[in-house]
Amino acid sequence: MSQSSENHPYASQWKQPEEKRPELVVYNSLTRTKVPFRPAEGNSVRWYNCGPTVYDASHIGHARNYVTFDIIRRILEDYFNYDVTLVMNITDIDDKIILRARQAHLVAEHRKENPVVTEKLLGELKEALGGFLQSKLGISEDGWVVLEQQLGVPSESSEESDAKKRMHFKTAQKGRLALNDTKVGDESSNLLDSFQDIMAVVLDGKFGASVTDQKIFRDLAAYWEDEYLKDMAALNVRPASLMTRVTEFVPQVIDCIQEIIKNGYAYEAQGSVYFDVGGFGGGEKGHLYAKLCPWSAGNCKFFEEGEGALGMKLAGKKDPRDFALWKASKEGEPVWDSPWGSGRPGWHIECSAMAAAVVPGVLDIHSGGIDLAFPHHDNELAQAEAYYECSQWVNYFMHAGHVHIEGHKMSKSLKNFITIRESLERYTSSQLRIMFLQHQWHAPVFYRESSMTTAIAVESLFFNFFNNIAAHLRAAQSAPPCSVERGERDLIDLLTEVRNKVHIALCDNFDTPAVLGQLQELVNRTNIYIQSQPTPNAYVLRMVGKFVKKMLKTFGVIAESGDDFAIEASGTGSQDVWETVGPILEIVSEYRDQIRSTVLEKKDCNELLNLSDTVRNKLTDLGVIFEDRPGKSTLVKLVNKETVAKMKADQDAREVEKLARKLEMARINEAKKAEKLAKAAIVPSELFKNNAEYSKFDDQGVPTHDATGEELSKNARKKAVKEYETQVELHQKYLDGKI
């Protein structure tokens, strides 16, 4: 007969362990504090991420945004094991796209019409330059000299108005210089390049309304969308679970607007539809407007910027704060049919409508750049809560921090941005990701030389660590040592401690800087352990290596595929390469060891030793590193081309530095020799004659009195005689040709 656990005689000896598990907390822009993260539906996370408005090249600010949320997504999916559905939109209907497409089309047509510089073209450009000076800088051509004196020198001013003025000054200066260097009959390409920004605005003002081909707008957006997706792939950003494109969701946008009108929060006026901000925030249903940035709710400038450059001409608003859900059609813009007439969606409604169509109901997470918080995200919240008649559409709003380039806030309008492509020409995607990981995800990022230098060093630390682990594991494939002594025990204890600290850090608002610090400490301590052991414990090394690699995979720093430890700096594995050439390299390594051993024992085969080093150097050029270890077999490592180049560059730098030191020492020695020779040439009797410290001398030319006429003291006289005698000997050597 079985007994229940309560009646079992040994049951009372067991106690339930206390759980000491930290809870995941995240910084929520809605509360401006860290709050516990609790998805609405169990393990599922519904996430909407604001995607790009595709009208130009993606820059480092976009990288900050999308890499940051890719890291957080990976942590949620791969570390905390949440089931994440991430939806991201592509905004391909927007004032910026319309303007850029029209301007690009008109500038291209203008170039075709003016292949050669004519008097007419010069007149157009001079007129355009005058208008630009007046509208952007508030001066006429006559005021240029004064302005040039004010702005023609570099400035570290961080004032946005001053920065914009300097930007416009440079644009005008480029045009003026081009005009001065051009004559009638020249090819126009260089001149029109210099005037492109100025003429784009002029031509759009004159002929923008004539651009009616819808394909012009779609082609521009499609091109930059494709470029954006290529950039994201290059940055190792995971594709969204679902991607939406505004042009494919216009019917859903219209349905969403109709529902908001039905619920009493929007109104139609002159073919446009506006959201009633006052009616929403001041109504009886207790809605709040501007939850994210309540301090900005009365800032009309922000509302105007949120309406877009083309939206400022809309009419019929009841309140300046009201914003367009549907914009009545105007000439030179793409249009769709709607119950209110031809037009197009407003910017803010696009995200709310697409999210409602794809992930209806309450969102767990909504994310985007901090620059979108107001009015865009606050307007999104208001629209969605008006649509659903709910008080909380988003549970956690997350905003990535600004990017500052060398101390200045990056701004596309100021043209002080660096494109992703430009950045990837200098750095690897892993290095950029590490740089972002070194900052709190919601804090400002300082993109500068020093931060990237640190990121490169961190990448190199991990890269070398993995290759070191791989080499030691290969060396220990047959009968690896299993003993666990003090060194192994300490490393295992450290691994346990680091795992716990990493977990605590990730639970604390995804504190990646703290995690990176812990991983670097673990790697450094492991390297010390390896150096201290004749034969490191392969099992312990594998434990440490797997954990470090797991975390870097989670962060997207290295590739997700493969379990080997041979990691390329670009983030890809080199196991396939090793399987192909590894056995050959091991044979070469063994052969080299035997040659070295023979030569070192006999000590009379220098040629063989040189040959051994030649083999090593040639294989180094191919990415194969032989690391000599006194008393042990050579360690074999595979490295990538970039690492080989860096090693050679470092070696070259050391050689250059060594040569420079040698030349400097030679220069110093030559100077000393010349100085000694010059002194030796002095006749002893003339040694003191030009010295102002003395006034009288004896027959040999040795001083007897100082400059004041006082007789020298006994010690001073003795010192002078000694110096004279030394000079006699030195001068004699000079005469004998021995110096």
TrEMBL record:
Matches recorded under Pfam families: tRNA-synt_1e
Keywords: Aminoacyl-tRNA synthetase, ATP-binding, Ligase, Metal-binding, Nucleotide-binding, Protein biosynthesis, Zinc
EC class of the enzyme, as a word: ligase
GO BP terms, alphabetized: cysteinyl-tRNA aminoacylation
CDD domains the UniProt entry points to: CysRS_core (cd00672)
Every tRNA synthetases class I catalytic domain range: 37-455
Listed InterPro entries: Cys-tRNA-ligase, Cys-tRNA/MSH_ligase, Rossmann-like_a/b/a_fold, tRNA-synt_1_cat_dom, tRNAsynth_Ia_anticodon-bd
Region feature (Disordered): 698-717
GO cellular component: cytoplasm
NCBIfam families listed in its UniProt record: cysS
PANTHER family in alphabetical order: CYSTEINE--TRNA LIGASE, CYTOPLASMIC, CYSTEINYL-TRNA SYNTHETASE
Name of the featured protein: cysteine--tRNA ligase
Species of the source: Paramicrosporidium saccamoebae
